[in-house]
Automatic annotation (TrEMBL):
One protein family per Pfam: Fer4
Name of the protein described by the UniProt record: 4Fe-4S dicluster domain-containing protein
Alphabetically ordered keywords of this record: 4Fe-4S, Iron, Iron-sulfur, Metal-binding
Organism, as annotated: Desulfotalea psychrophila
Organismal lineage: Bacteria, Pseudomonadati, Thermodesulfobacteriota, Desulfobulbia, Desulfobulbales
InterPro entries membership: 4Fe4S_Fe-S-bd, 4Fe4S_Fe_S_CS, Fe-S_Ferredoxin
PROSITE patterns associated with the record: 4FE4S_FER_1, 4FE4S_FER_2
């Protein structure tokens, strides 16, 4: 996905404009991530190159919150796990095998780090993503049917709740 614009910023990232003005491109966030999901962006864009990005298809965020704690410039600010808004996961019911075929997959639900808040099971069976989604991408990563895509917060029109940053 190098070069793609659909990447996620790490948890606690401020609005994209403020994030870019604060990020020192120091890479400490990537170094502290034990899940190796943060990559430093490549390319020739002076402002973007060297800033952290996450591709949930390759390696999602596990919401351990180490990166936002260590960031020296507060480009990632230290927020509660329930306030994280990296993006919003969209579930395509026409692709989901539980919704279409009644198969008890549940992979996304089982891996959601904040299940019963961000993801619920309608009638105890069918996965539904709520407004509390953190956008970590774990559900997108594990879905065997490719039915989930996380839309980065910077591409969303509507603000979800009074949460700061991504
Ligand atoms: S730790 Fe903070 S300042 Fe350093 S690269 Fe990551 S986001 Fe940027
Ligand atoms: S919260 Fe943890 S898993 Fe997620 S990007 Fe930061 S260090 Fe990596
Ligand atoms: S619904 Fe998906 S993207 Fe949202 S918090 Fe749960 S696992 Fe993460």
């Amino acid at each position: 996905m190098a070069g793609s614009n659909t990447f996620l910023r790490p948890p606690g990232a401020r609005s994209e404009k403020e994030f870019l003005s604060r990020c020192l491109q120091c890479g400490q966030c990537a170094q502290v991530c034990i899940f190796d999901c943060i990559k430093m962006r490549r390319g020739f864009n002076f402002f973007m190159a060297g800033t952290p990005e996450i591709d949930p298809k390759v390696a999602p965020c596990y919401l351990c919150m180490r990166c936002s704690e260590i960031c020296p410039s507060d480009a990632l600010h230290d927020i509660d796990i329930y306030d994280v808004r990296m993006g919003f996961a969209e579930l395509d019911r026409t692709k989901c095998t539980t919704w279409t075929e009644g198969l008890l997959c549940r992979s996304c639900y089982e891996r959601c780090p904040i299940k019963w808040k961000a993801m619920i099971l309608e009638r105890g069976e069918y996965p539904v993503i709520t407004d509390e989604c953190a956008g970590c991408g774990l559900c997108e990563h594990v879905c065997p049917a490719d039915a989930i895509v996380v839309i980065p917060t910077r591409f969303q029109n509507k603000k979800r709740g009074p949460k700061g940053g991504a």
